[in-house]
């Protein structure tokens, strides 16, 4: 299978990394898209972002390279309800930190239309 071309990012570049629809069963008791389901969207977006940067989960065992979520900061700016189309965009705003090889990624999401 041919590998996808790696995306080269500029500091302000965003990458569409996930799309989904808000289903009724994914909503909480108030009819809003439930928090745990946002995390699923952002998890999918992270895999796509890492893939675009050249990381392959399939090769993680043989290359002995891995990653882990360390922290999340989420600001909910508007509510999503059943039937809304959701898109996530991702960008890697920076790398580095106390441990070598750290990547700080950012995701934002909103209605598709």
Characterise this structure.
The chain is an alpha+beta fold and about 110 residues long. It has a domain at about 15-55 and about 75-110: Roll (Thiol Ester Dehydrase, Chain A). It contains two helices and three strands; from the N terminus they run E-H-H-E-E. A three-stranded antiparallel beta sheet has the order 1-2-3. Strand 2 and strand 3 form a beta hairpin. It is elongated. It starts with 14 loop residues before the first strand and ends with a strand.
Describe what is shown at a glance:
This protein has helices at residues 35-52, 60-63, and strands spanning 15-21, 85-95, 103-111. It has 113 residues and is an alpha+beta fold.
Strand order of the largest sheet: 1-2-3
Please name the CATH architecture of the domain at 15-55 and 75-111. Roll
Percent of sequence in beta strands: 15-25%
The class by helix and strand makeup works out as: alpha+beta
As residue ranges, the low-confidence spans are 1-5
The largest β sheet comes out as: 3 strands, antiparallel
Please report the number of helical segments.
2
- Rg result: 16 Å
For the record, give the distance between the C-alpha atoms at the N and C termini, rounded to a whole number: 34 Å
**Fraction in helix:** 10-25%
